[in-house]
Amino acid sequence: MDLFVSQLMNGIERGVIYASLALALVLIFKTTGILNFAQGEMALFSTYVTWWLTEQGLAVWLAIVTSVVLSFLGGAAIERVVMRPVEQSSPLVIVIVTIGLFLAFNSLAQVVFGVEAEVIPRAYPNERWDVAGVNLKMDTVVLVGILALECVLLWLLLQRTKVGLALRAVASNPESSRLAGVSVGSMLMLGWGLAAALGALAGSLVVPITTALNPASMQEILVFAFAAAALGGFDSPLGAVVGGLVVGVANALTIQYVDALDGIELLVPFGLILAVLLFRPAGLFGKVHVERV
Amino acid sequence: MSADVPLLRVAELSAGYGPVQVLHGIDFTVEPGEVVVILGANGAGKTTTLRAVSGMIPARGTVEFEGRSLLGTRPEKVARAGIAHVPQGRGTLAELTVEENLRLGAFARRDAQVASDVERWYEVFPRLGERRDQQAGSMSGGEQQMLAIARALMSRPKLVLLDEPSLGLAPIVTQELFRVLGELNRETGLSMLVVEQNAGLALGIATRGYVLEAGTIAVTGSAADLATNDDVRKAYLGI
Q: With contacts defined as CB-CB under 8 Å, which chain A residues touch B155?
């Protein structure tokens, strides 16, 4: 039983990590209609910025906040400079451009910050508590708290504000949004900026928990984040969180209990996703797109 | 605004798509309170005319709204100036709810009466009120056309551009639509520029009309004149 609970906690911690990046993927998809394959590497670069700032003597929290703000501006700039010229192109072209960004940011991080593994100081103490026999890590508590806060703020922004309405409108029908007086370019820049900021926060908090910072730090997380978003539905922030948790827990429990799949544990979470998508192609929480013409 | 300045003045307007020129220097005006209809066959340049006015495609010539030039102005700025364009195909924001579609229509407004305007249009278009929380894309074509018009009106425009509102709708739905449009014009004095192939219904609510042929204005006159003009009757009324 103890083993089960501790594996469950492991799974939840991994799940929250995946969910935090999946949330950025969902945000960019919901506001621009783009699957951003570069999300992980953008977060990697932002995490390097955080690390660099701490190396310059900045306190960790201050470094993270600075990096989040810079990433917001950087994300908006990427939309304006890199994505805008291909905005009207086919989805295939856009996907390839985001894959190009993936490679560019990974290489840029190596050139600028080097390939040595670096250690980011933790933003909070590495404590563990014993709660009714369950080993609770502060990492998990902090990540869950921040993720919950992000979800609430995102929901408020998208569902309860005029800017949020315009963000969703632009993703749904840019031409009609323009005719209603919405500056489509500003909204796309805002969407990219917000997603980059979320990614920066996720990377800066997650990397110190998982590995030393190196150019491959975010790649595994990105794959799982995509899986989480696909499972939950690419247009649902709540789906991203639930999807992340399901993937994380399923993976952790498989590693512990299914010896037959030793080394190929990934089969279970991804098999689960396949099964869900067979019956609900829009994901667990995704809105099924209905359009009469 | 002095009385002799038209609400919309278009002169020598030329526009097209890439190397293909569709409009070859057309002139027309819309006076305050008027419903002006532009008739024409497929490919005559009706949609291009509206797209040029609202800045969705580049154009040459003169487009003046309340005496100020709009040429080269971006669509979102044209919308903010008071021109609401109901595009062909209705431009429904399919993933948003009916009510969100309407609230988006009021995006450029800064006043506090958006909610009461939403209720007002639910009264005019009761079907929209019944479906306020429904995904807009799931509604029928006629309902989506009503939604597109209501969304345009939510901006409290001075001029509405309507691009073939009857397209793809059942005759009875089209009749109802034009009845509402005519009523709106009579009761609020809202100016409209309608392009249509359904000449009978459009001329029924119009003050004046133009016939567009291959990118030039071929005939112009009052709605009554056009409705009795032999060429127009043969070409567009099927009589």
A: 180-181
